[in-house]
Amino acid sequence: MLDKNGIAKRIAKEVKNGYYVNLGIGIPTLVANFVRDDIEVEFQSENGILGMGPFPFDGEEDADLINAGKQTITALDGASFFDSAMSFSMIRGQHVDLTILGAMEVAENGDIANWKIPGRLVKGMGGAMDLVASADNIIVAMMHTNKKGASKLLKRCTLPLTGVNCVKKIVTNLAVMEVTSKGFKLVERAPGVSVETILEATDGHVIIDGEIPEMAL
Prior knowledge:
Helix content: 10-25%
Oligomer: single chain
Number of strands: 13
Distance between the termini: 12 Å
Strand content: 15-25%
């Protein structure tokens, strides 16, 4: 199965030349490290930057240059900085081609829960609700199960929803799945992971159509 970098590396294959991409907090922030060098991509963060680069090397961090998750980042040549109002205008105006988010749960109909666990203190919704309400192309990066081994790909989400029927594709440490009207369609397996393992780890309905290839990383 994949680690977090492996998930990010697979998702990087979904990033196309000329895309404007928003990277959510967590695993999604790693995607910038694996995008091909021969394509031009603009990474946007809702705290007000367009043109994020890979994470800085140790000792080269700039504490004033951060993403929405307060991680230090780099800025590519030509990057621009602006206030949150402008940033959310980009998001709500549907000027972002691809949104990559983390999640605590995803339902087989494309619902996503990624901002709150009841009883735990959180700082707020952040930009997640605007992103899922405005984006047409949402990929979720997540671990397939939680720390207790319970599935995070469910028939119905149990946590407060961030968005409804909005997720298009999910990449986990076990598989790549597309969200369809009939459930999760298994598209690829992580290297060395069997279809049976994926089925056992998935609570929602899984569609198997023919031979399932391993991911090409």
